[in-house]
Design goal:
Rossmann fold; globular; NAD(P)-bd_dom_sf; oxidoreductase; Sc_DH/Rdtase_CS; binds NADP nicotinamide-adenine-dinucleotide phosphate; mannitol 2-dehydrogenase (NADP+) activity; 41% helix; SDR_fam; 7 strands; alpha/beta
Length: 276
Amino acid sequence: MSMSIEECAVARPGFPKPFPETPANVTEQFKMSGKVTVVNGAADGIGLAVAEGIAEAGGHVALWYNSNDMAVTRAEELARAHNVKTKAYKVNVTDAEAVQRTVAAVVDDFGQLDVFVANAGTAISKPILEQTLDEYKFQMAVNVDGVVHCAKYAGEVFRRQGRGNLIITSSMSAHVVNVPVDQPVYNGTKAFVTQFGKCLAREWRDFARVNVISPGFFDTKMGASDRCVHEAYRMAVLGRQGHTKEIKGLYLYLASDASTYTTGADMIVDGGYTLA
Ligand SMILES: NC(=O)c1ccc[n+]([C@@H]2O[C@H](COP(=O)([O-])OP(=O)(O)OC[C@H]3O[C@@H](n4cnc5c(N)ncnc54)[C@H](OP(=O)(O)O)[C@@H]3O)[C@@H](O)[C@H]2O)c1
């Protein structure tokens, strides 16, 4: 049963909490100078755009990759172009010990961890009746276990520091049943991480913010396949896939002091796909 109006009128000790001591000027709020961000899946696609956005705003970036070692070159390019510190790390997010070790290595190398962008993902887009159990387990390992591993070990650092910020790349597939290709396992993994992120926003309320970004189709390796691309154009109100430059600003917003009152949010950026 909810509290009565009289019970609610009693002030609770420690509330309201103070406003943050952040700049009032919005361009100052977006600056990432002095902050350290990990982005995984950072060699290409959405993750690379996120790493670029953070570096363009003056932040230091640890670019995590699994198989695409272009991350090493990209890290060097970003450091040169924006006069920030960067480093590439090879880590498979399905390996909990590797994630724990690499989070510790980032803290050793950079001295702190302010933002973790859990962006790595994979999809084997098939109906469950055509999917093998190994394919199911593989998607669960990357999309679910991988996010849990990253959240757990980044979260331990956030709690120790007394501050932190986790951003999870989910998908509009956590909200709708994509058409025309049935892919219940991928969609289910994304529904898990969306709800997981919201729950962490509450669990970590005293020391960290947690938010979720749910992209629609973006023109990357994981974007609309030949089998569904024309339907993707038809379903998106804007009539196309997104370009990765059209989403990095949202990651920067959530990573920066522009969003200090935003936690537990799930932001859909899908060109209007889920309106239908
Ligand atoms: N593009 C879309 O239409 C779309 C829509 C909704 C959601 N998303 C989500 O957006 C995120 C980024 O995808 P993207 O579109 O940018 O495609 P992408 O360029 O293929 O990025 C996927 C990234 O995940 C990394 N990855 C895969 N397995 C990994 C593992 N075991 N350990 C560590 N990293 C691993 C890959 O790293 P390596 O290349 O180094 O192996 C790759 O950089 C994914 O979570 C995806 O589900 C994408």
